[in-house]
Amino acid sequence: MKLSFPEYHLFQLLRRFDNQHLPLDLFLSQYFRAHKQLGSKDRRTIAQAVYGMSRWQSLIDFLVEGQPSWEKRYALFRCFQPDQYLYVNSIPLHTRVSFPEELFSLLVEDYGKEKAIRLCQICNTEAPVVVRANPLKITRDALLKRFVEIEFDVTPCKYSPFGIQFKHRAPLIALPEFKEGLFEIQDEASQCVARLVNAQPGERVLDYCAGAGGKTLAFAHQMENQGQIYLHDIRPYILEQAKKRLKKAGIQNAQFLHPKHPHLETLKKKLDWVLVDAPCTGTGTMRRNPDQKWRFSHALLDQLIGQQRMIFEQALSYVKPGGHIVYATCSLLHAENEKQVAHFLEIYNLEMVGDPFVSLPSYEGMDGFFAASFKKMDA
Q1: CA distance linking residue 345 with residue 343, whole number of Å
Q2: How many angstroms separate the CA atoms of 73 and 175, rounded?
Q3: H-helix segments, the chain
Q4: Residue-wise DSSP of 206-257
């Protein structure tokens, strides 16, 4: 079979992906950076095929003849219509919705069969493109106006006062507005989670699992560059990314603390707010990282539940009496969300503040996120 230029790179990419451990989005980004000869149209063609085949891999593998290969998968995928198999009873139900049996069974247990099927179908679609206007530099209305002038089809988000959704994908990171720090790419649900950290000017806040600083970027403007934000993560390289992003956004009241930083010990029981954006199965964001579902197992879930409890206890030690801690995941599973909240309330002297924030993936809507806010009661 004679391959087109993007198809050649598609198979090169897929074979390399099979022999490494990076998540799909990061691996794809690195491949494109290393192959600058691929134009935007080629990248789009490749990304659609890679993500599509990853989302539907188990159903495609069930349908191809003989031992699956990327060539066979791609040949089927090019004319693939997954909806026509949803009611074919000879195919296992979890395969029809292209989810691992273990994970699908947990979703059925938590949500019932019909809702679980719908969630899986939504997770197999392309996620919407959403950005968050940076109120330290521009209002949402002013940014919307700029996007409309560039002739982007955009609408304001319903739940986040800073969110803007794009009807079509666009090369956002190439825009001058992005380089100036006027906006960040962030799902609306993630923006809503960050808003639970109601930090005020002069307060002290710790983003305990900060990563590249996405949640901090979404709540920092409330503090008007007064008080102090501490970002902590076990990965020094990712804190460097956070440092660059916060500087671009105009956030000047942040410090970056690796696990052995001497300042950490001095912060115990002194902070007004702590955010725990806990490591999780990522089941609420599988539209963006469909490869993640094929790595799921009960053993991994049990391991993550243990990590979440350990991290929460560590983070809680930094909250002062009367202070607040926010626990968040991008998971759909009750075991990582509601059941963890029940555990924290049973073990620690905490009071729940309001109802948890819960979002489920929806067509052209938010990703799946969960967050709960607690007030520390003990002295």
Answers
A1: 6
A2: 35
A3: 5-17, 24-34, 40-55, 57-63, 70-77, 93-96, 101-111, 113-123, 140-149, 176-179, 188-194, 214-219, 236-249, 263-266, 298-316, 338-347
A4: EETT-TTSHHHHHHGGGGTT-SEEEEE-S-HHHHHHHHHHHHHHT--SEEEE
Q: What is the pLDDT of residues 237-264, one digit of tens each?
A: 999 999 999 999 999 999 999 998 999 9
- Domain range spanning residue 67? 5-91
3-state helix vs strand vs coil in the chain, percent to 5: 45, 15, 35
User: Above 70 in pLDDT, residue 1?
Assistant: no
Quick check: is 103 in a domain?
no
CA distance 224 to 208: 21
For the chain, the domain total comes to 3
Alpha-carbon distance values, 335 to 105, 289, 344 (Å):
13, 21, 13
CA 338 to chain centre: 19
Give the integer Cα–Cα distance in Å for 103 and 112.
13
Indicate the pTM of the whole model: 0.94
Indicate whether 262 and 340 sit together in one domain.
Answer: yes
Q: Left (φ > 0), alpha (ψ -120 to 50) or beta: where does 375 sit?
A: beta
Let me know how long the chain is: 379
Residue pLDDT, tens place only, 321-338 = 999 999 999 999 999 999
In a domain, 96, yes or no: no
116 within domain boundaries = no
**Under a CB-based contact definition with an 8 Å cutoff, are residues 228 and 255 in contact?**
yes
In a domain, 244, yes or no: yes
Alpha-carbon span 53 to 76, nearest angstrom = 10
**Cα gap 296→306, rounded to integer Å:** 16
The verdict on 179 and 194 lying in the same domain is: no
Distance CA 17, CA 166 (A): 29
Each residue of 182-205: pLDDT tens digit? 999 999 999 999 999 999 999 999
298: which 2 tokens? 């009960």
